Amino acid sequence: MRQLLGGVALAFLLTAGCGEGGKLKSEPVDVTGKVTAGGAPLGNVQIVFQPTGSDLSVQTPAAVGADGTFQVRLIPGKYVYYFQAREVLKPADRGAFAAGFQKVPEPYRTADKNHTVEAKAGEVVIDVK
User: How confident is the model at residue 12 (pLDDT cuts 50, 70, 90)?
Assistant: First the structure.
């Protein structure tokens, strides 16, 4: 029974973003962006995109560099976004990444339907306040 449920869940996940014939409704596009806080770069964090109107917990993370820039591949559409602390493998980098996350305003640390962005090919700017 457990294997059957696992197979059903896997089939659902594989077809959730698909149109007829199991093909994607839209091809993913490269989205580049810049995260700012009041116009100044907000970096050394991770931004997470979650499609709106989706019952699935599909999340696509992207690392935000020290200069506030990121690059990610997304299917075009509207996404809720929020920020997480980046995982850091080098102990010497931990301080910079912890400081970056501390600059993220509290309301942007969890998924909120009021924090959305339209993903399309090209560049987007996300300014947190």
Answer: very low
Give Cα 41 distance to the centre of its chain.
18
Phi, psi of 107 (to 5 degrees): -65, -20
What φ, ψ does residue 58 adopt, rounded to 5°? -75, 125
CATH of domain 26-128: 2.60.40.1120
Q: Tokens 């009021």, residue?
A: 114
Coil vs helix vs strand at 14: helix
- Report whether 92 contacts 78 (CB < 8 A): no
CA–CA dist 73, 119 (Å, integer): 9
Break the chain into its structural domains and give their ranges.
26-128
**Residue 96's pLDDT is what?**
74
3-state secondary structure of 34: strand
pTM higher than 0.70: yes
Provide φ and ψ at 89, rounded to 5°. Answer: -90, -30
Q: Which residue has the tokens 């506030």?
A: 68
Please say whether the beta carbons of 30 and 60 come within 8 A: no
